[in-house]
Structures are given as structure tokens and as C-alpha cells.
Amino acid sequence: MKTQVRADVDLGKKRERAKRDSSDSESVKCVEGLNHLPALKARCPDTRMVGVGDRESDVYEVFAAERPAGMDWLIRAACDRCIAHPERYPWDTVTASAPLGEIELELPAHRKMARRTARLTLRCTQVIASA
């Protein structure tokens, strides 16, 4: 199992991360983690598992990888790529689904952003990535 937490000094350096060698990217670490799923699922055959990934997990290799039965993904989308669904794009597809819940969070001021209220809406639907 691999996890990664970015150090505070590395926050806000997206352009620098984009210039790194692809073998050191956070997305590659997500793909490497897929190799551990069959062994994990074999140890817990009756447990439904959900792999959770941030935007770095939104890469084709993750969606195209074979995964054990009873294993699903919950991935924060980074790309609005074309999918095999009547809505054609995941953001439109998810936005068209019924909200499962909503919460408001009070966020403190941070760097150049003023204190604010964020409204988070949870939506969920199945999408199939096109090859």
C-alpha cells in the first residue's frame, strides 16, 4: 500500500511537479499500488473494497487496469475526458445525478484566500472510460 503526503513547502508548485520525470510522478505511484490489490482482496474475499484516489489517480492506466471482483474506485476527477455514457463527459454525467448529501464548511483564511464558506455536494454515478 502506498500513500503520499506532500510537504507544506511543496504546496502550490504544480508547474514544478509537471516538469519531473514521469517515473517519479504521483500518478505512477497510484498505478504501482494496483499491483497490491489481488493479494489484498485474497486476504479479505468477502469484503467489498473501494480504492480512493485524488486527482493524481485520474489517469487512464488506473481505469484500464484489471481489478478484482468486489473492488471499486472513487476518484476525484482531474480531466473531463470522453466516456461511454449518454452524457459523454464525466463532469456532466455526475452533475446530472441526484445529490446524495451536502455540507457547508467554514474555511479559514489561507495564503491569499480570505476566510470563506465552502459548500460540498456528494454525487455518485458509474462511468465507463472509453478506450
TrEMBL record:
It comes from the Bacteria. It comes from Paraburkholderia elongata. Residues 1-25 are annotated as: Disordered. This is Uncharacterized protein.
